[in-house]
Structure formats: structure tokens, C-alpha cells
Amino acid sequence: MNDRLKALYQKVIMKHSKQPFHFEKKIPCDHIVVANNPVCGDNYNFYIDADTEKIGKIYFHGFGCAISKASNSVLATLISNQDWRDAYQYCNAFLAYLEHKDGADQKPLDPAFEAFSAVHEFPSRMDCATLGWKEVKKFVETHLKKEDIRQ
Amino acid sequence: MIDPNLIRSHFPIFQHHPDLVYFDNAATTQRPQTTIDAVSKFYSQRNANIHRGLYSLSTDATAGYESGREKVKDFIGADTVQSIAFTKGTTESINVVANSFLGPRLQPGDNVVISAMEHHSNLIPWQQICLQKKAELRVIPVDKSGELGINNIGDFLDSKTRMLAITHISNTLGTINPVERIVEIAHKNQVPVLIDAAQSICLHPINVDTLACNFLVFSSHKMFGPFGVGVLYVHPDHMEDMLPYNYGGGMVTHVDFHKSSFMAYPHNLEAGTSAIAEVFGLSSAIDYLNNIDRLEASDYVHGLAHYFKERLAEVGTAVVVGSPENCAGIVSFLLDDIHPHDVATFLAEENIAIRAGHHCTQPLLEQMGVKATLRASFSIYNTREEIDHMIAVLKKIQKFWA
Ligand SMILES: Cc1ncc(COP(=O)(O)O)c(C=O)c1O
């Protein structure tokens, strides 16, 4: 295997994809967030408990490649039990880190992001790594907007 | 004899990418230099809009475009050149038949029959017109091997069936459907048949006269021709029934502010400026195909698929999805439980281009009990050595994943 592939399929990613965190259809739950890629047929559900203060445990289940599974597994690990604004910040930071928004040598907000640093070299796999994060970000955003209106 | 290395030398992509192993021919084929030259020669030497100018450049472009129609007619053995309309491709051709032919005659309670192995392009246009007209869409199932129960097809047809639309070759499983028998059965029931020849047109000689289908559709880009142009063949019996699809210039006989009258098929379907250079390219691609023995060519390519399946058996628990008896140069498979995208990324790093996903046949894969597959599809420039290379890489991937 060449170095590019070794960088993409790092041990951390392989581990998360083979033993994903909270990989379970956790019903009942407060919210289900769907992450669906019609182009490739990948399909995940996030099962999220949450109250007005914070997000509770996040579980996920579905079908997709190693990169998407690992990325969703890291999401479930990092976003579970965060308060809403922190969750939003994490989602933003993860997406910005993968997309090199602040340059290629940007420091990750969380060391767990680093496992995905090579995805940028594989443009066709970007969606795999970001789909779940984008959908959960939208979900968090909607909640925060409602909060803002309420206040 | 097919000499893949000689054929390879006709396709400049392989000079630019000497290591490229191109196994994605079902998505689009590569183009020989002759096709590329025909397009570029049109632009540099003969460029003008057609059907409009009185100057020689335009009349010459018109003549070239119309001789492309003639060439397509001969290529598929149609009786008359009037049967041939140029469209954007298979997808548009099917939409035209669904809307310009079937739509106006489809009544509530009528039905349309397709098979479970159709590409989304030969499913959604029928599904939508059926929804609009409160008609029923009936789907002939596939069995585990990826074949249609040919003996049951008659059971799906009745006096309310207004169309049978079926693919010649499955773009996902490679199944070659017995279209002659299918047309026969349909015609016994007075049902018109549309054959989706997107995957067969390149290497399978088709004669619409003996096949006796009512409609035949295909795309230039899957037969060594340019993107952006395709063909709709309509049997002479139905030419008068083809209503305009797009309205605009070039398809009218008279226009005033409150009404218009239209040219006859096929010109009533070619509104606006056509893909003229692409028709010149398609014409040249047909010349290329006429210069090879297509029976030998399809044998060669089927042989590659067969060889690939044999070698795949060496790769531990790899499985082929579908095992039709009559199979073209298309193989869907899975490597253990490794997701197809991951496998395709590894292969891509070794310059092996194959496709991973649902191949625009989501309902078919659901029936086969899988979500996505890897698909290798072969053409006449592919070799057994390339397959050996892919097998070696698949073994490496398996080891890495273990
Ligand atoms: C069997 C079949 N039908 C229809 C199509 C659609 O062709 P196009 O995208 O050229 O319109 C394809 C293309 O993949 C196909 O394989």
C-alpha cells in the first residue's frame, strides 16, 4: 500500500470503522438525524437525546464506507454530552479542518480530527468524511436558531 | 481476432495515461482518435449551423449531419432514415417516448411494464407518467441469478398494457435479456416494446428490422462516440404518433402569434440547435465499429468477464453479485464486507478505474439484497494482464483489511 493510502486509512480510522462507537439503533430517542448520500447510496441515522441545555448521548447506525463510519463514530464520541454551542463549534471546526478553510497547517480543535487529515488529498472521499457532520451541524443550528428566537 | 494492443493504440487516452486500467466502460467508453478528429475537424473545417443557411458551409454541415442519420439507420438496420431522431442520449430518448408517445394515450387503469433491472433512466420516466395518469407500473422481478423469468413475462401483460420497456443488457449485472423472445411475447399481446440498448449498442449487432421492436434508444458516449448526443429509433408505425417534446426553432412549418404547425417526426423532436459536431463524431464512431468484427469483439469482452470471475474465485471470500447464464462484459462484485468505496479508492491508487455504488439501479440492488457493489465493465482495449493486475491488488486490499 502506498503512503497516501496509509495516511487515509490510518489505524485510528480502521479501528473506528471496525468497532464504531455507539453503533446501534437507539430507539426511542428524542431526535433522529438522517445523513443520506443519494449519489453513492450511503445512509446513516443519528439517534440523539437532548434537552434545552445540552445534547445527551448520540448513537448512530447505517450503511457506508470505512471513512464515513469512522467519521460518524468520532462524531458520536465528541458531540455526545456537549452543550449546544460547543457542539456547533465542534462541527464547524471539524468541517473547516477537513476543508483546509484556514490553511493546510491549521491546528485541530480536537486531536481526534487528525485521523482525517489525509482526506483532503482524496476529493472524491470528502463527502464520506463530512456528510454526518454537516447534517448534525444543521440539526444543532436549527436548535440554536429556535433558542435565539425564544430569547 | 481482436488485438487489444492494436485497438489500444487507436485510443489516445492510453498514450496520455499509459498505466490506466480502464474498467468503467459501462459508464462511458473511451474514444478513438478518429472520433475526436471528426469532432475537431467539423469545428475547424465545416462549422456552421444546419438547416438554416443558404451558403455552402451551412448546406455542407446540413448534409453531413443528415448523413449521420443515414449512418445510424444502416447501423441498426432501420427501413427508413425518417425513423431516426437525435436526442441528448438514452435518458432523453426514453423521456420523449414516455411523454410524446405514451402520455397522451395512457388512461387511468392502464399499465406499463418494466423489469426490476432497469437503470433509473428506464424506470423513473415511466413511473412518473403512470403517477400522473393514474396508471399502474408493473415490474417483472429478477431471480437470484439476476435473470428475468422469461416464461412469466406474458403474465404481466394484459389488454390494458400500453408499453413494455426493457433493457437489452443490465448495466449492473451484465445480464443479456432475450429481447427477441420478449418482443415476440409482447407483440402477441399487442403491446409495443421499447428496448434500452445503452449497454448493448456498442458491441452487439442489433437489427431493428428482425428484432421488430417499436422503439430503440441508446447513447453515443457508450459506443466510442462523443457525449451529448443519442438516438431514438421509432418504428414507422408510430412515427405519426410522436408529438413534439421541446418547442422552438427548427421544428415548425408555420408560426403565427396564436398557433403553430409542426414538422413531422423526427424533425418535430429536434427543436433548437442540435449537437451537430457530436453527430459527426457519432458518425465516425460508427465507422470505427463497422471496421471491427463486433461478434468477435463481444465474444472477446465476454471472455474477459468470464476470466475475471474465474480469477476472483481465488480472492478469498469475494463474491459476484448475480450469475446470469448469458452475461455481457459487466461484473458486479463485493470484496468481503469491505465497502465498495473503500475498495475503489485502493484500486484508484493503482490506476484501476472501476465504479462503486448502486449504478443507478437502487431497486435492483435492493432486490439482490445488497446496498452497493463494485462494478468492473470491460471493452475491447482491455486485457487479461490488466485483470491479473486487479486481482493482485484485490488480494493486497484484503490483506490490509484483515
Ligand atoms: C442501461 C442504461 N440505460 C440508460 C442509461 C442512461 O444513459 P445516458 O446517461 O447516456 O442517458 C445508462 C447509462 O448508464 C444505462 O446503462
UniProtKB/TrEMBL annotation, chain A:
Residues 9-89 form the NIF system FeS cluster assembly NifU N-terminal domain. Pfam families: NifU_N. InterPro entries: NIF_FeS_clus_asmbl_NifU_N. It comes from the Bacteria. NCBIfam families: SUF_scaf_2 (TIGR01994). This is SUF system NifU family Fe-S cluster assembly protein. It comes from Agaribacillus aureus.
